[in-house]
TrEMBL record, chain A:
Keyword tRNA processing belongs to the record: yes
Entries under PANTHER family matching the protein: CYTOPLASMIC TRNA 2-THIOLATION PROTEIN 2
Origin: domain of life: Eukaryota
Sample GO molecular function, one term: tRNA binding
Family, similarity comment: Belongs to the CTU2/NCS2 family.
Chief place of localization: cytoplasm
InterPro entries xref list: CTU2, Rossmann-like_a/b/a_fold
Cellular localization per UniProt: Cytoplasm
Metabolic or biological pathway: tRNA modification; 5-methoxycarbonylmethyl-2-thiouridine-tRNA biosynthesis
Protein name: Cytoplasmic tRNA 2-thiolation protein 2
TrEMBL record, chain B:
Name the record gives this protein: Cytoplasmic tRNA 2-thiolation protein 1
Lineage: Eukaryota, Fungi, Dikarya, Ascomycota, Pezizomycotina
Purpose: Plays a central role in 2-thiolation of mcm(5)S(2)U at tRNA wobble positions of tRNA(Lys), tRNA(Glu) and tRNA(Gln). Directly binds tRNAs and probably acts by catalyzing adenylation of tRNAs, an intermediate required for 2-thiolation. It is unclear whether it acts as a sulfurtransferase that transfers sulfur from thiocarboxylated URM1 onto the uridine of tRNAs at wobble position. Prior mcm(5) tRNA modification by the elongator complex is required for 2-thiolation. May also be involved in protein urmylation.
Source organism: Lojkania enalia
Entry superkingdom: Eukaryota
Record's keyword terms, sorted: Cytoplasm, RNA-binding, Transferase, tRNA processing, tRNA-binding
GO BP term (any one): tRNA wobble position uridine thiolation
C-alpha cells in the first residue's frame, strides 16, 4: 500500500536537485527520491557526531547496541547505520563504531509480536553486524537483584517458577490493558539495557522518531510520569547507567513510512506491520493510553508536523534535576525519584488522607506512574 | 444480581459509580467524600486564613455554583472563619448574560451570601454590546478577553477583598497541561498548575490596589463529572451553558484527548495534573536567551486556566494551523544553521494574545540536554525575571507602560461618537450572542 503523501510524479522538478521530477512532498518541499533519501540520512547522521571515526580509538572498537522491533523506525535506522558504516569504511578504511543488533521476542506476551524469522532475513540483508536475540522472560534471568520479583504476587513462590511462568504471573497480576502495556515496555527497556551491558556496548541507539517521542511524552504525562520526562527523550547518560541516543529524533514517522518504500532496495519486507485500527474505541477494555496517544499523534502529524516536533523540543527544555547515585530509583521504571516521593499518596491531589479509611498503599518503592500500573503492590 | 452496598458505609445501597476511581458509593457517602476532599485541598494547601474575606467568582455555571455551595457547607462544618461573598462579572451582552445572572442572584439568596455584579460598563465604561457596535463583530473578542482578565481583580479591589476563588476543576487543569505541551509554552504550563496564583505583592503598597489579589482554585483536584454529580444530587440551581470548541484549536484538541484518556483510565485526569505539577518544577524559570522578555511576562492574574476555553468564534480552526505555519518557517531558518525556536504562539484573535509570540534566537553551538545538563547541580528556583511594572493609567500589573486594557480603552474612547451608542440591532445582537457564547463561563 503506497503511503498517502507519495505524490504521483508530477511535472514540477525536485526543489533540491532541480533535475528529477518530485516524488514526495516533505515539509512543503517537493523532493525526488534521491534527495528525499539523502534528506532522511542527513537528519540521522547529524545526530551521530560523537560516533565519528576520528573519535574512535583505533585499538578499541566502540560498540553500540541497536535494538530492533521490526517497526517502521528501527529498520530504517539499521539501514541508515549500515550505510553510514560502509561510507566510513570506504573513506577512512575503518569505522567509528560497531553495531550489535538485538531483538526482544515478545511471543505470548504482546498482541501481535514480530515474527522472529524476520531476524534471519535481516541478518542476510545486513551481514556485517552482530546479532542477538532474547525473549522478554529473560529479564528475570539477567536481573542483578530481586527487585522485579518483589513486585510480584507471592514473591517467594514465584521465585522458583520457570522464567516464562514468572513473566506470566507478573503480567496477569496487572488489572488493565494500559498497565500491561506499560509494564511490558518497562521490562523491554530493562532487558535491552541489561543486554547492552552484557554485550559490552557503551550505548544504545533507539529508533524513536519525532512522532514517537512526542507520543511518548504525552503518554508518560498521562500516566503520571511527567517527572521523568527529561530523562526519557534526551541524548546522553541515562538513569540506567548507559548512554541513550535518539538519532531518529528529527524524522517524522510518516517520513519513515515513505522511506521504507522508497529506499533502494525497499525495506518493506523487513518491516512488521501491526494491524492498524483506523478507529480506536475508548470504550474497549483492550484500548490503552499508548494506543490513544499513537492515534492522536498520527492525526496531528498528518496536518501539523511542526507541532509534533515542537512538543519534543519543548520537553527537551525541561531541566533534569541533579540526581546523585544515592537518590532512590523506582523499582520498576528505574527513574530517579527525587525527594523519594514514591507511591500515589503524599501530594496535593492525594485526598485519601482526608478520608476516614486511608488506603494502605505506600508505594513500595514505585514511582507515582508505576504505582498506577501496579496498585496491588504494597496492598 | 443483588444490589451492591456502598463501599464506604457498607450499609446503604450504592447508587453512584464514582467517576474518579469507579468505586461504588451511596448518595450520602458520595456527597461527604466529595466535600471532604475539597476540605483536604483547602487545608493541606493552607488556602484560607481565618478572618479573610473571600470572593467567589460566580457565573451561575456548575463549577462556581458547586464551589459556592461546598464552601458554604465547609465553612460552617469546619469553622474556617472566612467571610464568603459572590462576585459576578457582567460583560454587558444583552439577551445572553441575563439568565445566568438570574441564577447567581438566586444562589445569593440560597447561600445567604452578598452578591456584587460588576458590569464592564462600570469597570471600563463600555459594555460588550457597545464595544461590538464600535469595533464590529470581528476582533471584539480581544477586547472582552483583555477586559475579563482584569475584571475579577478590579471587582475584588472594589469590594476590599484580597482573595478570589474560581471554579477551575481538575479537567480544566489537565487540559491546560496538555494544551501547553502542544503549544510549547512551558512558562504558562508551570504557572497554571499552581493552585494559588497571585500578582507579586512588591509591586504595590496600596492595600486597595487591584494588583495584589490572590487567586486560588479549591476545585483543582475535583473531577468535572463529580462536580456535575454533586450539583445533581444536591439539587443545586445552576445554569448550563454549552461551550462549543473549535475542533482544531489547541484547547479543543486537548479537551477531547483528556476525555478519551479518562475513559481509558479514570485516574488519568489526576495523573496529568500530577505530571503537570512535577514538570513545573523542571521548568527553567528564566528564559535563557530572551532575558525573560518573551514568555514570562504574564501577570499571574492574566494566565488563569480558563475553565471553558473561549476559542470559539474567533480562531476557528486557524490556531493550530497558524502555529504550524510559523513553526515550519522556523524550521526552514533552522536548516540554515541558526537554532531558532518557538516559545509561544498566540494566534491572532485568540484569547491569550496579550503578548506577542516570541521567536527566540539561541546562541548557535550551545547544545541543550544530554550530558552537560546532568553535570550541573540542581539549581534552586530563581525568581522570575519579569520586567513587570504598573500601568501608568490604572495601576494594574503590566509589562508595558500602559496595560493592554487601557490601550484598548483609549482607542475606544477616542472614537466614541458624541451622541452615544444606540443598542440593539436585533440581528447583530443575536449573532454576537452566538459568537461570544462562551464568555459566560469566564469567571468560572
Amino acid at each position: 500500500m503506497p503511503s498517502k503523501h507519495i505524490e504521483p510524479p508530477g511535472e514540477e522538478p525536485c526543489r533540491r536537485c532541480k533535475e528529477n521530477t518530485f516524488i514526495i512532498v516533505v515539509r512543503s518541499e517537493p523532493l525526488c527520491r534521491d534527495c528525499f533519501i539523502r534528506y532522511v540520512h542527513t537528519k540521522v547522521i547529524k545526530r551521530m557526531e560523537s560516533f565519528r571515526v576520528r573519535n574512535a580509538d583505533p585499538n578499541r572498537q566502540r560498540k553500540i547496541l541497536l535494538p530492533v522491533s521490526f517497526g517502521v523506525s528501527s529498520i530504517p535506522l539499521l539501514n541508515i547505520m549500515d550505510h553510514h558504516l560502509k561510507t566510513q569504511k570506504s573513506k577512512t578504511g575503518r569505522t567509528g563504531f560497531a553495531l550489535t543488533i538485538l531483538f526482544v521476542d515478545t511471543l505470548g506476551v504482546e498482541k501481535s509480536p514480530a515474527n522472529p524469522n524476520l531476524l534471519i532475513q535481516l541478518e542476510e540483508r545486513f551481514p556485517d553486524h552482530h546479532y542477538a536475540k532474547v525473549h522478554l522472560e529473560d529479564v528475570f534471568r539477567t536481573e542483578m537483584d530481586d527487585s522485579l520479583l518483589e513486585l510480584m504476587p507471592y514473591a517467594e513462590v514465584s521465585k522458583v517458577l520457570p522464567l516464562s511462568e514468572q513473566l506470566a504471573v507478573l503480567i496477569n497480576s496487572l488489572t488493565s490493558a494500559t498497565a500491561r502495556a506499560d509494564v511490558i515496555s518497562m521490562l523491554k527497556t530493562r532487558l535491552i539495557v541489561q543486554q547492552a551491558q552484557f554485550l559490552g556496548c557503551e550505548g544504545i541507539l533507539w529508533g524513536d522518531s519525532t512522532t514517537r517521542l512526542a507520543e511518548k511524552s504525552l503518554t508518560e504525562t498521562a500516566k503520571g510520569r511527567g517527572f521523568s520526562l527529561p530523562w526519557q527523550i534526551a541524548d546522553g547518560e541515562s538513569p540506567y547507567g548507559i548512554t541513550f541516543n535518539y538519532p531518529m529524533k528529527d524524522v517524522l514517522k510518516k517520513e519513515l513510512v515513505s522511506y521504507v518504500e522508497l529506499v533502494q532496495p525497499p525495506l518493506t519486507s523487513l518491516v512488521h506491520r501491526e494491524p492498524t485500527n483506523t478507529q480506536i474505541s475508548t470504550g474497549s477494555k483492550n484500548t490503552t493510553i499508548d494506543d490513544l496517544m499513537k492515534h492522536y499523534f498520527e492525526s496531528v502529524e498528518a496536518n501539523f508536523p511542526s507541532i509534533v516536533s515542537n512538543v519534543v523540543r519543548t520537553i527537551g527544555k525541561l531541566e533534569a534535576p541533579y540526581s546523585s547515585s544515592s537518590d532512590s530509583h523506582c523499582k520498576l521504571c528505574k527513574m530517579p525519584v527525587v525527594g523519594g516521593q514514591f507511591g500515589i499518596h503524599g501530594w496535593g491531589g492525594d485526598q485519601e488522607d482526608g478520608l476516614a479509611a486511608p488506603v494502605g498503599n505506600v508505594g513500595q518503592g514505585l514511582c507515582y506512574g508505576c504505582s498506577r500500573s501496579m496498585p496491588q503492590v504494597g496492598r | 444480581m443483588p444490589p451492591s452496598p456502598c463501599v464506604l458505609c457498607k450499609t446503604n445501597r450504592a447508587v453512584i459509580l464514582r467517576p474518579k476511581d469507579h468505586s461504588k458509593l451511596c448518595k450520602p457517602c458520595f456527597l461527604s467524600v466529595f466535600e471532604t476532599e475539597i476540605h483536604h485541598t483547602i487545608t493541606s494547601n493552607h488556602l484560607f486564613q481565618r478572618g479573610e474575606k473571600i470572593a467567589i467568582g460566580a457565573s451561575g455555571g456548575k463549577d462556581s455554583t458547586v464551589l459556592a455551595s461546598v464552601l458554604k457547607t465547609l465553612n460552617g462544618r469546619y469553622d474556617y472563619g472566612v467571610e464568603l461573598v459572590l462576585l459576578s462579572i457582567d460583560e454587558g451582552i444583552k439577551g445572553y448574560r441575563d439568565d445566568s445572572l438570574e441564577t447567581v442572584k438566586r444562589n445569593a439568596k440560597q447561600y445567604d451570601m452578598p452578591l456584587t455584579i460588576l458590569g464592564y460598563d462600570e469597570l471600563y465604561g463600555w459594555t460588550m454590546d457597545q464595544v461590538v457596535e464600535q469595533v464590529g463583530k470581528k476582533g471584539n473578542c480581544t477586547y472582552c478577553g483583555v477586559f475579563r482578565r482584569q475584571a475579577l481583580d478590579r471587582g475584588a479591589a472594589r469590594l476590599g477583598v484580597r482573595h478570589v476563588v474560581t471554579g477551575h476543576n481538575a479537567d480544566d487543569v489537565a487540559e491546560t497541561v496538555l494544551m501547553n505541551l502542544l503549544r510549547g509554552d512551558l512558562p504558562r504550563l508551570s504557572r497554571t498548575t499552581s493552585i494559588v496564583t497571585s500578582t507579586p505583592s512588591a509591586i504595590s503598597t496600596d492595600p486597595n490596589s487591584h494588583t495584589n489579589i490572590k487567586r486560588s482554585k479549591p476545585l483543582k483536584y475535583a473531577y468535572e463529572k463529580e462536580i456535575v454529580l454533586y450539583a445533581h444530587h444536591k439539587n443545586l440551581d445552576y445554569f448550563s451553558t454549552e461551550c462549543i470548541y473549535s475542533p482544531e484549536a489547541f484547547r479543543g484538541s486537548a479537551r477531547a484527548l483528556i476525555k478519551n484518556l479518562e475513559r481509558v483510565r479514570p485516574s488519568a485526569i489526576l495523573d496529568v495534573v500530577r505530571s503537570g505539577e512535577d514538570m513545573a518544577k523542571l521548568v527553567l524559570s528564566s528564559d535563557e536567551g530572551c532575558e525573560g522578555a518573551c514568555a514570562s511576562t504574564i501577570p499571574a492574574a492574566e494566565e488563569e486556566v480558563d475553565g471553558c476555553g473561549s476559542v470559539n468564534g474567533r480562531s476557528v480552526g486557524g490556531e493550530m494551523a497558524s502555529m504550524e505555519q510559523r513553526l515550519a518557517q522556523n524550521e526552514v531558518v533552522a536548516e540554515q544553521d541558526l537554532e531558532v525556536e518557538m516559545t509561544i504562539n498566540h494566534g491572532s484573535g485568540q484569547r491569550h494574545d496579550e503578548h506577542d509570540s516570541g521567536t527566540t534566537l539561541r546562541k548557535p553551538g550551545k547544545k541543550r540536554g544530554g550530558k552537560e545538563k546532568r553535570g550541573q547541580a540542581f539549581l534552586p528556583k530563581k525568581t522570575q525575571k519579569q520586567v513587570m511594572g504598573q500601568c501608568k493609567k490604572c495601576g494594574y500589573l503590566s509589562s508595558q507602560e500602559i496595560c493592554k486594557a487601557c490601550v484598548l480603552l483609549e482607542g475606544l474612547n477616542k472614537s466614541r461618537p458624541k451622541n452615544g451608542i444606540e443598542l440593539g440591532y436585533e440581528a447583530d445582537t443575536h449573532r454576537i450572542a452566538n459568537g461570544v457564547n462562551d464568555l459566560q463561563m469566564q469567571v468560572d
